[in-house]
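Short chain dehydrogenase
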Amino acid sequence: MAREGAKLVICARTPGPLNDTAEALRSLGAEVLAVPADLGRAEDLQQLVDAVREAHDRLEILITNTAHPKMGNFEALDEADWRAGFEELFLPTLRLLELSLPIMRAQGWGRVVNISTSAVRIPSSTYLLSGVFRTALASLSKSLANEYGPHGVLINTVCPGLYRTPLGESLLASAAERRGVTLAEAEADYAKDTALRRIGEPEQLGDFVASLCGRPGAHITGQLLTVDGGKTPSLF
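Tokens:
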């Protein structure tokens, strides 16, 4: 998005990493506003959207990406975990959509990309919370795409596989520990089940998301788009 010339507003709970990310984006020539915000707090989300409109008058693109939830199979999760999963994964995106979509509809133009997970396409007992609540978000996105499409607002869900990010490396480390293997062995084991025999680089995912928000994505909406190097075995 920075290389495409978008004016960026980014948020995170922790100011240090947030400001570091903002500086990295500015080094690419981007105009960046960094807003400390906790996605779990409705008032923070309102302040975030207000900051966007105050700085730029418009809100044209919304890209959502929530925290990674607790891992565990069905019997390892209790009701508190399910409530936390709803509040961490579903509710923040719902609130942002409630705040943003009326603005985009009034503008007659908007793009929404909800970053999801390949666990939506490949249900996993280990990533149960992530799969369940992000599947619900994918369903919501499809319904909203039908509702807001006539107003020029396009809404899609992107399902990444494993990428070489801090989260991706943390997941690999957890897998290595569970199985008693090295980090390199865990990565190789994941990669062998992909068509490309490798994990993804974050720039590749970023380029794809940017394309959805620009001219290449102008006729794409309501879709569940898997970007996992060919790991998902199903055709549909």
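Residues 37-160+219-227 form a domain with the Rossmann fold fold (CATH 3.40.50.720).
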